[in-house]
Amino acid sequence: MKIAVVHNLPAGGQKRALYEQVKRLSLKHELDLFILSVTNENYLPLTGFVKQIQKITYRHPEKFPYSVFSKYTELKNAYIQMAEKINKGDYDIAYVNPCYLTQAPYVLRYLNIPSLYTCPEPKREFYEHIPRINNKLTYNLTLLFRLPLKYIDRENARKADKIVTLSMYSKKILEKIYGRQVSVNRLGVDTDNFRPIKIKKENFALSVGAFTLLKGHDFIINCIARIPEKIRPSLVIAGPEGNETVYLQKLAEQKGVKLRLEMNISDEKLEKLYNQARLFLYAPLNEPFGLVVLEALSTGLYVLTTGGGGIPEILTDSRLGKAVERDEAVFAENIETALKSGIKNGEFRRNYVKENWTWQKSADRLEKLLNETVSQ
């Protein structure tokens, strides 16, 4: 197939998934990349897997209200230009991924060829409470101006010929919001990049995810603070930048938790952290899938989580980890218990991932879904 790949993703798990899938699709198909001039291609660039890159000019204003209004005008026009190029390119299908500015991108409205849209989640701010400390007043004051994005995301997504998501949890949510049937293609992990290495364990727990409150890092800080100081582990959080970095640092200082933030690190450094950590802690709110859980398991690390979202679809065996209620006292007690128990079964966790959660399996499912979309 000749495939037009579209994305405007920030650094993070969604871009990693696209990178791994495109890398494997490129071995059998001809791929061209369509992006905006503001698209981040420094993190896990796709350039090595595509024949051509088409970059459409779009300058996103930083100041309100232009930062919002441009999403309704200039951004829409940029995606119209992109669709025109794709329509003239003799492509079999467009493989479309989210735009961080609108979620489902406008390009879906204007394509004359089959399209498959991978949608991890809707525009969540309009369907659930998003906790925040920083810029809370500004966010609330501008909410009315952003409200059209709720309907733009929905209408854009509904124009796709096929919508695909990452978990049964997300499938149920998206089908209710978009009123469309949604397929599931679970993700994977590169077990060569994330593997056990011989390195000394250190007395810290690890969490991974952007420095926002959606990832539940503040909950984890509060839980660790409940552990007696004599045996209290430090906390390392690794992830892309977020808007609550300063808040998390201040909270840890107030609570007496030794915190280290590792920002925008390499896979090699992340693999090292997984292997040095004694325990992986994960407490996001309504996480669509939980890719970092697979990375932790692939290194043999035990996972303690609040569960929810798509995470229970990964943790199907008690030897992999444990999901407990979102209660600080209960979670803290389980951290203590896990650290004292001398956690075992690392080999089982790694083998579980190797047998069930590879990127090749995910790419094969995606290829099948793309073929189905072309032929329907």
UniProtKB/TrEMBL annotation:
The keyword Translocase does not apply. Gene3D superfamilies: Glycogen Phosphorylase B. This is Group 1 glycosyl transferase. It comes from the Bacteria. It holds the Pfam family Glycos_transf_1. Residues 194-351 form the Glycosyl transferase family domain. InterPro entries: Glyco_trans_1. One of its GO terms (molecular function) is glycosyltransferase activity. Keywords: Transferase. The keyword Glycoprotein does not apply.
